[in-house]
Amino acid sequence: MKIIIAGVNILVLFSLCFLFWKHDQSSIKRVFWPALLLKCMAGLALGIIYTVYYSSGDTFHYYADGVRLADFARTDIHAYLSFLFNGDEGHPMMSDLIFKQPRALFLSKVCSFFCLLTWDNYWVISIYFSVFSFATAWVLVRKIADTFPQARAAGIVGVLFFPSVVLWSSGIIKESLAMAGLFYLAYIVVCLWSRERLSLLQLLGTAISLWFLWNLKYYYLAVFLPVTITTVLLQFLSKRMALTQTAPKLALWLIIFMLPVFIVSLLHPNFDLRQVMQVIVVNYNEYQAISASEDAIQYESLEPTLLSMILNSPWALVSGLYRPFLWEVNNVMQVMAALENLLLLALSLNALRRAKSFFYSPYRLIAFQVLVYVALLCVFLALSTPNFGTLSRYRVGFLPFFVTLLIAGNPMVNSMLHSKILRGVVR
User: Fold this and answer.
1) Which of 367, 380, 70, 351 is nearest to 217 (CA)?
2) Is residue 146 within 8 Å of residue 32, measured between CB atoms?
3) 108 Cβ partners below 8 Å, 6+ apart?
């Protein structure tokens, strides 16, 4: 019976993906099936990695809680629905669950719905999550290809094929659905940057994405919203004020940036600057306590003060983007991460050689937005989550955008991507 249910779910998913592909008229349509297959394989690989390499992990705990909630639903559907929307720490069901922290519990609740749909099949649920993440990533890359033709290949590689981006935004983990929301919001930002009117369906998608991201990775949103709102406002104002020079635009960007930062700081207690610094230090000390010294970033007397944060930020940025280095690895997973980091470093050095062209690019404003978002989120994550293993997963929140920016306009990479071998795929 379970095999039949799994087969029906796979058939339904394939049919939906086929219809999506059939009606797609974008210039990157040929990439659809290879990228989708890679995404689904990554979701399955995530489960295998946690089974073989880690022996356990959050992914199976989310699933276990999802199964318990699904069993609860099969017993009393009304009580189950009440728990989904109103369940708190005082609910009797909480004692049976592994995760009680709100963000983790949110994913367990989502997982329980798919447990009911698949009859508790971990691997089919993993494919569902991977397909959702792929769908919004595809929408974003398709929009990048249409709006910024020079960045078409970069978007394909950075969002759809970069190894750690694909792996850590797939399967039953918070990042999978959080990145689905983030990719869709990035798509909406590009639409607004292009001065397009949003449809009711797009507004609904935006609301759902904000809801998922807020409940799963609210700190991604805390950085993303101020940066993107500022850029969209500046894009509007620069047209009205006839601003063309780069320096005045950057100055106005920084001035406008203060307003959404202030608004976002009111949305959550942890967003207050003093509270943020305190949370960073507490998290840093907790990770240091459970991590071997060679497996974590070390800072010089990190304290909850603005001066301490500023002094440690450069090393946090370097470490978050490029560490572990090859000489710091201790296991197979770190070797893979270090090789990827070496590639990122090479791409970054090449990008620095082309830095002058940034000031003449018609897309310098949105490129600046990406740089600010990457830098802020990277520093925050590297300071508060110094463990290399955990950081390699969490940094998926900025990595696809960073890789896309590094590859866009890189003549060497673009020549490779448009070689005879790959020309039929990326064109």
Assistant:
1) 380
2) no
3) 62, 65, 66, 69, 97, 98, 99
Cα angle for residues 354, 359, 363 (degrees, 5° grid): 95
Per residue in 376-422, pLDDT tens?
999 999 999 999 989 999 999 999 999 999 998 766 666 665 554 44
Q: How far out from the chain centre does Cα 321 lie?
A: 15
In angstroms, the CA 52 to CA 107 distance is 23
| Separation of CA 400 from chain center | 8
DSSP 186-210: HHHHHHHHTTPPPPHHHHHHHHHHH
Beta-carbon count within 10 A of 101 CB: 7
Q: What does the alpha-carbon distance between residue 245 and residue 256 come to, in Å, rounded to a whole number? A: 17
**Portion of the chain with pLDDT greater than 70, in percent:** 91
User: Which pTM does this prediction carry?
Assistant: 0.92
pLDDT at residue 43 tops 70? yes
Non-local (6+) Cβ contacts of 353 within 8 A are none
Q: What Å distances lie between residue 266 and 185, 260, 262, 373, CA to CA?
A: 21, 10, 7, 20
Residue 148 and residue 7: Cα distance in Å, rounded?
40
Closest CA to 63 of 140, 207, 171, 189: 171
Q: Per DSSP, what are the bridge partners of residue 296? A: 387
The rounded distance, in Å, linking the Cα atoms of 42 and 274 is 39
Rounded Cα distance between 421 and 402, Å, is 25
Give CA torsion, residues 128, 385, 227, 185, to 10 deg. Answer: 0
Residue 315, amino acid: W
Residue 423's pLDDT band (boundaries 50, 70, 90)?
low
Picking from 145, 120, 114, the residue whose alpha carbon sits closest to that of residue 64 is 120
Yes or no: say if 60 and 99 are a contact pair by the CB < 8 Å rule: no
- The structure tokens listed for 223 are 């950085």
Q: Which residues does residue 387 pair with via DSSP β-bridges, in sequence order?
A: 296
Q: Which two tokens stand for residue 130?
A: 């991977």
pLDDT tens sequence across 219-258: 999 999 999 989 888 877 766 666 666 677 777 878 888 8
Terminal CA-CA length for the chain: 44
Q: In this predicted structure, which of 48-52, 170-174, 310-314 has the lowest mean pLDDT? A: 48-52
